[in-house]
Amino acid sequence: MITHLDDAAVHATPNATMRRYGGTDVAVWRTEMGSSASGPCHRIDTDQVVVLVEGGLEVRAADEVRVLHPGDAVLLPAGSERQLVAGDAGAVTLSAALPGGVARVGDGEPVVVPWSR
Q1: Of 14, 21, 24, 52, which residue is most buried, by most CB within 10 angstroms?
Q2: Strands of the chain, DSSP E
């Protein structure tokens, strides 16, 4: 089955747009972030692999800050606190994780990540 970019399910937040591709055993999504946009510090209960496709990305995880360049990937272990910050030119990533990941921001309520279903 082919999913064209324009046909992927879209989930928008104030800081990014996620496009979900098909799959039942693995969730795969494309994230587009504008210049210097950042998501909140959060935890997810599944491992997540993020590959930077375009732009620049700063990954804050496990008390470290890493800068990714196009083609670089980072493994974000389950339960680790993380924050992604786009560079000046924004960022486009491709991510994969087990479906149905649950996220939590701080002490907030757990939420199933909609683009990982």
Answers
A1: 52
A2: 9-12, 16-21, 27-33, 43-44, 48-61, 64-68, 73-76, 82-97, 102-104, 111-112
